[in-house]
Write a structure and sequence with these properties.
Length: 369
């Protein structure tokens, strides 16, 4: 075991991010639409991270998670040693399983075709991480695991993005299917109905003044369309909704970054009560959504909280008088059960995304100590 320390731009009605997760019923080409970033005049030249998110965003709020002040799981297991055996841990992957074949045998779906390798350049400097190289003839390189049903997950991972990469869907995806599925079926371009599926993704979504920016890219029953008048049945009306829009939430290309997302599902199918959505970077809470706030406003398929400072929000700023609807399901049978780290690149060139120390748990994990 290793000793571990890991837009939609509204311009002539165009959507800035191409969709492209694979669908069991759709080819990759059928699951995409045209990238409008260039047409919308969005700058695609990007750079690096300011480690102090509050300094970069100007946000000095005291927002805290419900478990703020509680010891994280990682703090109890220095170097992540023994973390995988904690009863709160649903899934643990440190890529120390010996071979790619042995690691892949633990998953329900592996898309490799020679594009996955084990590397020794890890966040801790010892052991192994996995490297996924996608693009060209192999657009999709990923791991997928069906896990036991749950109503709450904390998902922690370490990621490193190759500098200059042209990412399509490259990051951590997780969520739920009803019935549970042994393979991903994101149904690109279609809004979930509330009984069938939802997905949470954290990945590079926008360009910004100090670098490529992470954001959510979520599908759920309350999501909004990029169209003014959505056409629900043609498979192009709904692309993942971004929710954070912070210039300081940068990808930090070329560097390992510790990320964590938290989802608690709405307790009653009839409303959003009890639901929580949070994301941390390097143990700093970036954004938290619940039934009480924050207040924000919608710009087509982008929800802009009051603290948003991304151009895609500020150029079209409105009165912050709305709370994000986190009604993720309308049936209690729809639960968290899908785990899908992926690198999906549709460019002719190839780009590498590295992962390490993947944890799914029922309480806050935190960055490795």
């Amino acid at each position: 075991m290793k000793q571990f320390l890991a837009l939609v731009a509204i311009a002539s009605g165009c959507r800035s991010e191409v969709e492209g997760p694979r669908d069991a019923d759709l080819s990759p080409d059928a699951a995409q639409h045209v990238d409008a970033r260039t047409d919308a005049g969005i700058d695609t030249d990007l750079g690096t991270f300011d480690a102090e998110l509050d300094d970069a965003t100007g946000d000095d709020s005291d927002a805290a998670s419900p478990d703020a002040g509680q010891e994280t799981l990682a703090a109890q297991y220095p170097g992540d040693e023994g973390l995988g055996s904690d009863p709160a841990v649903v899934w643990f992957e440190d890529f120390e399983g010996g071979t790619l074949a042995a690691i892949g045998a633990r998953y329900d779906q592996v898309r490799d075709n020679g594009r996955m390798t084990l590397i020794s350049d890890t966040p801790s400097g010892s052991g192994h991480a996995i490297s996924m190289r996608a693009g060209g003839s192999e657009q999709a390189v990923d791991l997928y695991k069906q896990l036991a049903d749950s109503d709450e997950w904390f998902v922690r991972w370490y990621a490193r993005y190759e500098p200059g990469g042209q990412w399509h869907h490259s990051g951590m995806w997780f969520g739920g299917y009803n019935p549970a599925s042994r393979w991903p079926s994101p149904n690109a371009g279609r809004r979930p109905g509330g009984t069938d599926r939802f997905s949470i993704a954290v990945e590079p979504v926008f360009d910004g003044p100090i670098g490529k920016r992470f954001d959510f890219y979520n599908y759920w029953m309350g999501m909004h369309s990029w169209m003014q008048e959505p056409i629900n049945d043609d498979g192009t009306a709904y692309w993942g909704n971004a929710l954070v829009h912070r210039n300081g939430f940068t990808v930090d290309e070329g560097n390992w970054v510790c990320m964590e997302a938290h989802v608690r599902l709405n307790s009653a199918p009839s409303g959003a009560g009890g639901a929580i959505l949070e994301v941390w970077k390097r143990d700093e809470l970036v954004e938290r959504f619940d039934e009480h706030g924050p207040m924000g406003y919608w710009i087509r398929d982008k929800f802009c909280p009051e603290a948003a400072d991304g151009r895609e929000c500020l150029d079209y700023a409105d009165t912050a008088d709305t709370i994000l609807d986190l009604r993720l399901r309308s049936a209690p049978e729809l639960r968290l059960n899908a785990f899908w780290p992926q690198n999906y690149v549709t460019e002719a060139s190839q780009w590498t995304l590295d992962f390490d120390q993947l944890v799914v748990a029922t309480r806050r994990v935190g960055c490795a100590r």
